[in-house]
Amino acid sequence: xxxxxxxxxxxPKQFSEIMGPMAVHMRPSQALRLWQQVALSxxxxxxxxxxxxxxxxxxxxxxxxPPHTVRGLAEKLGVTKPVITRALDTMGALKLVxxxxxERDKRNVLVKxxxxxxxxxxxxxxxxxxxxxELPI
Length: 137
What we know:
By secondary structure, this protein is mainly alpha-helical. It is built from 6 helices and 3 strands.
């Protein structure tokens, strides 16, 4: 038996229309337990131990579309440019990001992604998924 669909199949679909809602429902205690377990696994691993600020900056750089500037990052986080510069110094030494002068406007410093940084962020995402899968229901 065949069913006739009234949906226009030629229209592009949003991921959420195909897969349904992707919301994860947790109690506060579960969310905190997940945060704790991810933090513990990160501290125990051989990867660089980033501060909360450094991680926030790194995730903005890798999850939000470029370009990223020191000025823009400072505005987004509500901190001064020197605060961003110090964080980028550390992350640059770890090869998680790189900085270059904007050729169109020499006043701006562009912050760019690196292969090492992309791998770090991907591994971090995998760690969150793994620890989330261990949460009791």
